[in-house]
Amino acid sequence: MKIYILLPNLLISDIFAYDYISFSMKRFIIILFSAILPLVSIQAQPASKQSAKVWSLHECIDYALANNIQVKQQQLNEQVAKINLLQSNLSLFPGIEADASHGYNYGRTIDMFTNQFASSTVRTDNYYLSSSITVFNGFQLLNTIKQNRINLQASQYDLDKMMNDISLNIATAYLQILYNIELLNNAQNQLDVTNQQVGRTKKLVEAGTVAKGDLLTLEAQSASEDLNVVTTQNNLDLSYLSLSQMLNLSSPDSFKIAIPQIDMAFETAVLLTPEQVYAYAMNTQPEIKSAELKVQSSEIGLSVARGMRSPNISLRGSLGTGFSGDSKQIKGTPSFSGLDTIGYTYSTTPVAVVQPQLAYQTETVPFSDQIKQNFNKSISLNLSMPIFSGWRTNGTISKAKIAVQSAQYTLQTTKNTLFQSIQQAYADATAARNKYKSSQKSVDALKEAFKYAEQKYNVGLVNSVDYDDAKNKLAEAQSNLLQAKYEFVFRLKILDFYMGKPIELK
After folding, report:
1. DSSP labels for 292-322?
2. pLDDT at position 250
3. Which of these, 449, 466, 365, lies nearest to 123 by C-alpha position?
4. How many Å separate Cα 485 from the centre of its chain?
5. What angle, 0 to 180 degrees and rounded to 10, lies between the N-to-C axes of helices 212-246 and 464-498?
6. What is the pLDDT of residue 99?
7. Whether the Cβ atoms of residue 471 and residue 450 lie closer than 8 Å to each other
8. Which residue, among 467, 152, 471, has the nearest Cα to 294 in the 3D structure?
């Protein structure tokens, strides 16, 4: 018995080319292939397609906020603000410094521990521990703590502002993809309808009931709509690429988004006035909070600058000791080496006054003994009064005043920009809703008109030019409807965002 191994890419129709395989064996092989080939095709699929992730808007925003480099940089700025606050808090505590030195003196010098002249090489060791604390400096330390605390809060609001901007950008790109998907579906539907008419007209031309010019017109229309499908597909691919780049994805090939069912209830949607939205935004938008805090920070900075004019009172203390190689002590018992005449007395004859001459042996005082003997400590209260510093203090105060005015102008500009953005979003949303209502009526009317034109074309009452004109008008109205729909969705989301609502598509 011979056994033949059939390769997976062998067509089932090729099995019947082998005459030596019986009919029952051929049926068995066909059944076997029917069971195996689906499994082979499933296993042959790339893993990326089997496990392709479908991204929702919420997932896109979370991923972007977690991986955006600008967000990470702003987080670093926030960490710097935390360090500045910690440092200013610790500045209230005493500063402690330790100092140690080891050296050699050559030539004639006064030894600081023996207070005697030394002409030989002398080794010296000095050890100091000092501390100082500021008692009063015009409240500069306390005001600096307040300023750094406010700066930290402002940096946190700046981070929130950046995250909000990124969220809006992600939502814009996400809605652009949804818009392009619907445009592609409409374009493909238009092409399918035209191709059906092309096939039907071909049969009528072959039957001699329709002129060939109508067929050529429809084929030209089909080619134009096919180009429109390609262009729309390219726009969709580019919108996917744009969103994937915002997310810092390596490639947009397997990147797909979830398509939510958006029912915005255009007829019943209630739009608050710009003034009402602005009132909410003033309490929720981080850029307003940040600008207000920066005004407070600049005002406290002015107080810090003015504190430079006040006297500075500080308390200082120190502990010290040391070792000198020139510090000597007597070693053992001195020995008698003779008499020295130190003077004379007179009565009748001079009489010499003598004293014994002793020989001493000395040694350097041990290190541990000198450390104990030379131990000293001090405490002092110091007062310094600034009188003239080259106009630096006045210059610093003047700059601080300018900083306050600049921060106030920035706050007002931020408020104006916010209100103008809300006004623009409200106007755009209102215009988009009105456009949507008009486009919906136009689409409904043009659908009936196209349906009527199609029926008349099928019975030969109108030519292909009139048919294409009705079809193109319907396509344009549908495109306008989609544009108005997503424009309204986006502007409505912006208004909700200014009121502190999360960005969601429901």
Report:
1. HHHHHHHHHHHHHHHGGGS-EEEEEEEEEEE
2. 82
3. 365
4. 32
5. 20
6. 93
7. yes
8. 152
Buried b (16+ CB within 10 A) or exposed e, 172-195: bbbbbbbbbbbbbebbbebbebbb
Tokens representing 340?
A: 């020295």
Cβ contact 496:425 at 8 Å: no
Q: Is 392 helix (H, G, I), strand (E, B) or coil?
A: helix
Q: What are phi and psi of 426, to 5 degrees?
A: -65, -45
Distance CA 125, CA 369 (A): 13
What is the dihedral sign for C-alpha 243, 247, 252, 258?
negative
H helix or E strand, kind and range, residue 67: helix 57-67
């929130």: which residue's tokens? 160
CA distance readout (Å), 367 to 126, 235, 358: 12, 86, 27
Strands 54-55, 256-257: pairing is parallel
> What is the dotted CATH code of the domain comprising 58-81+141-309+392-498?
1.20.1600.10
What pLDDT shows up at residue 186?
Answer: 85
pLDDT value for 268: 56
- What residue ranges of the chain have pLDDT lower than 70? 1-52, 113, 263-270, 506
> E-strand spans in 42-149?
54-55, 95-105, 109-110, 117-118, 122-136
Domain ranges of the chain: 12-44, 58-81+141-309+392-498, 100-137+312-384
In this predicted structure, what is the pLDDT of residue 5?
36
**Whole-number pLDDT of residue 182:** 85
In angstroms, the CA 354 to CA 356 distance is 7
Q: Report whether 410 contacts 291 (CB < 8 A).
A: yes
337 vs 359: CA distance, rounded Å: 7
Burial level of 45, CB count in 10 A (0-12/13-18/19+)?
Answer: exposed
At 269 the pLDDT is 63
| pLDDT tens figures, 117-172 | 777 788 888 998 999 999 999 999 999 999 999 999 999 999 999 999 999 999 88
Quote the pLDDT of residue 53. Answer: 80
Q: Which long-range contacts (CB under 8 A, 24 or more apart) does 417-422 make?
A: 418/278, 418/281, 418/282, 418/285, 418/287, 418/288, 418/498, 419/274, 419/278, 421/494, 421/498, 422/274, 422/277, 422/278, 422/281, 422/495, 422/498
